[in-house]
Automatic annotation (TrEMBL):
Gene3D superfamilies: Luciferase-like domain (3.20.20.30). It comes from the Bacteria. Residues 22-375 form the Luciferase-like domain. GO terms for molecular function: monooxygenase activity. This is NtaA/DmoA family FMN-dependent monooxygenase. InterPro entries: Diverse_substr_monoxygenases (IPR051260), Luciferase-like_dom (IPR011251), Luciferase-like_sf (IPR036661), NTA_MOA (IPR016215). Keywords: Flavoprotein, FMN, Monooxygenase, Oxidoreductase. The lineage of its organism: Bacteria, Bacillati, Actinomycetota, Actinomycetes, Kitasatosporales. The keyword Membrane does not apply. The keyword Flavoprotein applies. Its EC number is 1.14.-.-. It comes from Streptomyces viridiviolaceus.
Amino acid sequence: MSRDRQIHLAAHFPGADHTTVRADPRSGSQIDFSSFEHLARTAERGLFDFLFLAGNVRLREHKGRIHDLDVVGRPESLTVLSALAAVTEHLGLATTVDATFNEPFELARRLATLDHLSGGRAAWNVVASSGAFTGENFRRGGFLDHADRYTRAAEFVRTARELWDSWTPDGEPRPFAHRGRHFDIAGEFTVPRPPQGHPVVIQAGDCDEGREFAASTADVVFARHGTLEAGRAFYADVKRRLAKYGRRPDDLKIMSGVSVVLGDTVAEARRRAEKIRRQQVSPQTAILRLEQIWGVDLSAYDPDGPLPDIDPVPEPRFTRGRTRRGDTVAVAEKWRALAQEKGLSIRETVIEAGGRQSLVGTPGSVAAELEAFVRQDAADGFVLVPHLVPGGLDEFVDRVVPVLQERGVFRTAYEGRTLRTHLGLPEPA
């Protein structure tokens, strides 16, 4: 890795049951502003590029009810980020907003406002939904075909950028008109052009449509790959797609979601990691995960017993509002093979097979592994997903960031004020 190629870091405010450990006495509120502020200030102290908040527009259900371990009551994220803009100076502020159940004019206005309030630090993680389940909250159940979700999202982003570009360099609004398949709007945009030109666009889909959408439209990809080999394959595939859209490899940053567990020795770190994973995957959660794959009620099974010997339902309908795990029959067979090979129980199998990439070791070994991923083109950076809110990032910032700086692969000070500058992204024309 060349001296001028730096690792990019971001922080994710976790919220799903498979990430947070709320039984830990250090676990704080998921709604109090102090929790968001602590994590944001820690990320900025660590010179991270941005803080990333998830955002759901419907609570997820399992067997007709909200799962007990899911986070509920999370505040609206753009409002939270607007408040965080007042207590941070450099940290980018990113959130998920659905392109299916919003409209370009209103969302472009809110993102432009955040960009102005923060001095050019806004980012939008574009997601696309098509299901009637989510649509029921908007009286739009099933109105969008699944095949159209990315075409609408792409047109949504194009339209938002047209709105952001509609003001003159002298600060005067010009009339806009967009005529497309999904949007037919005209008028004058109410907010001057954002300081960044366009807020940074993030994308997280891993299917072929998602990869193409990232190559054509996104500035950052939030990837989830558990091995170096998988990361390198994804990195090469997405980067090679950029040329057809007239883009260079550096125009898109690929950042892999990771969790980190540290110890003074590798053995200590491994013991801590094992404890955390067992806290994340309770017996109740292990059965829920299994039911998501098998698609039938498995509440009578012992989490510490073997996997079911029954076949899974090919199209499970037990869980609503969660991303499907691909071909569930194939996943079940993979889990069975893993359990048989290692003699694992249900809970042990879920722990072994689930979760995102986790780096476990000393500060020095973790820093070396992060550098290796970037050096070998498996990522441009990482989105840190701590298991505790709000203090789960503190140890990484205090112990790993200084090592990365000593290795010359991470900044020692912010060199600009906008998120685009932090990420080394080109300014929009």
